[in-house]
Amino acid sequence: MTKRISLTRYLVEQQRVDGHIPGDLRLLLEVVARSCKSISQAVNKGDLGGILGAAETENVQGEVQKQLDIIANEVLIEANEWGGHLAAMASEEMDSIYVVPNRFPQGEYLLMFDPLDGSSNIDVNVSIGTIFSVLKKGNDDPDTIEPVSEQDFLQPGTQQVAAGYCVYGPQTTLVLTVGDGVAMFTLDREQGSFVLTRENVQIPADTKEFAVNMSNMRHWAEPVKRYVDECLAGKEGPRGKDFNMRWVASMVADVHRILTRGGVFLYPWDKREPEKPGKLRLMYEANPMAWLVEQAGGAATNGHQRILDIQPTKLHERVSVMLGSKNEVDRLTSYHSTL
Ligand SMILES: O=P(O)(O)OC[C@H]1O[C@](O)(COP(=O)(O)O)[C@@H](O)[C@@H]1O
Ligand SMILES: [Mg+2]
Ligand SMILES: [Mg+2]
Question: Which segments constitute the Fructose-1-6-bisphosphatase class I N-terminal domain (predicted)?
Fold first, then answer.
């Protein structure tokens, strides 16, 4: 029988044997994983838990919140605030940062999350997830301790010390990187623990599968139109091969498929709201996914710049996203520089 490695053991090994993460970060990630387990339980209850449907509120982005958006946000805040490893948190569902109250032990990390990604899929029983990213508070000098502010969060994705997501689908799977490749853990519901099921995940450099919301095609910029047109032209077109298309409308599920079997995911800028760089949020959607994809040998760009190099200017900053199989992302980048 093959040895089962729990998430806890994997993290201990990352800390002790490989020296990749400090003890504080390990404990923080365990709390995040426990929160995902609770969210998974709430998600699984569905109608039985009375938690489906919209809440009567909007988030800072003007999107109608679902009850589960709010529940997942509360689970993450409540579980993490007393853990002792965090200075502050930020979420898609909160206008500004949440500073850990000083009645709780303080830590040096900053946790950001999209508590429930793919909200439009909650009520129709399609995969959804939680995305998270961990940064270190910039100022470590104990003599000049300043209160944590939004400014502390505005670090490029290259500064992440851990990132991942948990997808609530037919299985609940937590996917994680601490900068040492990508590992996947499946929730064993009977045992109540995450078990390592894939290590050293690799995205093939080439693919025949793309993911994009085609209904927006008429709004896209020329380079994206060209790329998708060429995929659609199939064997008879310049690519000389047929492509398949998938669009779950939950970024977690689409990225999970790409990490599992390759592909390319696009949520590009479009002219419906030309002043916004894109729909997805840089800090807690694009950055963690971009790091996971790069750690698996793929690439992630906004068309002009590597996503992880973008210097954020605000917490809820948006970004155009193209990520996945490296050769496809490189092709998209080249189309942006020539058109
Ligand atoms: O409905 P659209 O326009 O295709 O958008 C789908 C995209 O929006 C998102 O749902 C945004 O996430 P939230 O549900 O967290 O707002 C992505 O997960 C997904 O890729
Ligand atoms: Mg989201
Ligand atoms: Mg969300």
Answer: 6-199
Using a pLDDT cut of 90, give the percent of the chain over it.
84
Q: Cα(214) to centroid of ligand 1, in Å?
A: 14
User: Are 119 and 227 in the same domain?
Assistant: no
Residue 177: helix, strand or coil by DSSP?
strand
Instruction: Out of 142, 165, 198, pick the residue that ends a domain.
Output: 198
pTM of the full predicted structure?
Answer: 0.95
pLDDT of 328: 98
Tell me the two tokens of residue 309: 């190099």
Mutate to test the pocket of ligand 1, among 39, 94, 120 (most ligand atoms within 8 A of CB): 120
* DSSP character string of 126-160: --EEEEEEEEE-S---GGG-----HHHH---GGG-
> ipTM value of the model?
0.98
Same domain, 46 and 130: yes
* CB distance 251 to ligand 1 below 6 Å: yes
pLDDT of residue 286: 98
Asked if the structure places residue 204 within a domain, the reply is: no
* 176 and 31 in a common domain: yes
